[in-house]
Here is the input.
Amino acid sequence: MGPDLLRDFAPEVCVVGAGPVGSFLALRLGAAGLRTHLIERRAQPPARSMAIGVMPPTLRRMAALGLDAELSLAGIRVRRAVAHDERQVLGFLDFSSLPPPHNYVLSLPQGALVSALWRRLRGEPSVVFETDCTVEDIALDRWGAAVRKIASDGTARLLRCQFLALCDGARGRLRTRLGPDSFARPYGPRFVMGDAPDAADWGDEAHLFFTPFGSLESFPLPDGRRRWVALMRPGDPEAPAAALDERIRRLTGAPGRAGDWIGTSRFAPERRLAPRYFHGRAILCGDAAHVMSPIGGQGMNTGLGDAARLAEALIAILRAGADAETELRRYQRERRRVFLRAAARAARGMWLGTRTGRGASALRSALIRFLLGAPARQSSLARYFSMWSLPDAAPLLERDSSPWKEAPA
Ligand SMILES: Cc1cc2nc3c(=O)[nH]c(=O)nc-3n(C[C@H](O)[C@H](O)[C@H](O)COP(=O)(O)OP(=O)(O)OC[C@H]3O[C@@H](n4cnc5c(N)ncnc54)[C@H](O)[C@@H]3O)c2cc1C
Here is the structure.
C-alpha cells in the first residue's frame, strides 16, 4: 500500500505492536469490518523462543477466525503429561477428557503462531498492516488519539484514530505516556530454557520432573524438537546449555538432545499489573497490561483472551453505539479478574516447581500423587491446567464452535 493511500486511510482503531495479542486483536477487528491500522517495529516475526503452549480456550477463540485447524496441524497436540520425582512416575495428566475438538494443549512456538496471524493479516481488507515502523509517541484528546510513527527509512508521520490499543508488550514504553508505570515484582528463582533436536523417547508427551535437586520440564515441539526448562540452582554451570545438559542427564539418565541446542536462554519470572487498563481512548492489552510467570504457560493465552474481549468492546462501541466508558470499564473489570486468577495459578506453579531439598520434595511428591490419583481429580486438574476453569472460558463452549473435525493424529 502506497504512502498516499496510507494517509487517506483514517483508522477507527490503531493497534501498536503485532505480537500475538496485537495481531489477533487486529484480525478480530478487521473481521468485523472496523478500519484498523496495525503498526509493528519488527520487519519479521520473532525467532526468539518464548511461549509454546496454546491452550484449548485460545484455540476456541482462533476457531472464530477459522484458524484453529491450521494452527493445530502446524503444532504438536499434547494429550498427556507425565509427572516424575527422582525415583518414579508420580502420575499422568490426561487432556483427552477435555471438550472436543480441542482436547489437547497445542505445542506451537510463538514465532510460528505470529507468522500464521501475519499471513492472515496480509489478506484482511479492513486492516492496514505496517511492519518495520516504530511508534515513537502518542497523545490523547477527547475525540481519540494521535500516534507519531517513524518508518525504517526515517520518515515520520502522524496518524489519528478514534481508539488506540497498546499491545507493545512487557518492554513497551508507550504506557508510561498515560501515567506512572506499575512495578515489576520478581518471583526470585531463575530458570534456563532451550530447544534441541529430540533424543527422548517420549513422542507427543510432556514430562515434568520434581526432585530435591530442582525441577525439569520437557515438551515436544514441531519439527522433531523438544523444549527443556530447568530451575537454576546454586552451583549450576553458568552457560545455559551446560546447565541443561547436566540436569537432563541427572534426572532422565539420558541425553535429551540429538544435536546442537537451537537457542538457549535464562529467564527470571516477574509479575506486573497495570493499575488501569484504559485512559480515555487508549487501552492496554496483553503483556502491556500485565505479566505473570511463564511457568504454567498462561501469559500469552491470557493476553489473547484480553484481545478477544477488547474486540467485542470496540465493536459494541463503534458499530452498536454503546457507551465507550461503560464498555471499557467492563473490559478492565473482567480482564483484571481473569489475570488475578491466572497469576495466582502461576504462583502455585512456581511454588511446585521451585521446592528443593528432601523434605519439601517428599511432601510435593505426596501431593502430586494424591492429585493425580483419582480420575475425578485428574479431570478437574486437566481443566485447570488447560485454562478451561478460568471465568472467561465457560461462555466459549456455548458460543463458538469449530467446524473443524480433527483427523486421527
Ligand atoms: C521464556 C518465556 C516462555 C513463555 N511461555 C509461555 C507459554 O508457554 N504460554 C503462554 O501463554 N505464555 C508464555 N510466555 C509469555 C508470552 O511470551 C507473552 O505473554 C506474550 O509474548 C505476550 O504477547 P504480546 O503480544 O502482549 O507482547 P509481545 O509478544 O511482547 O509483542 C509486542 C510487540 O510490540 C512490538 N512493539 C513494541 N514497542 C513498539 C513500538 N513502539 N512501535 C511498534 N511496535 C512495537 C514488539 O516488536 C512486539 O512485536 C512466555 C514468556 C517467556 C519470556
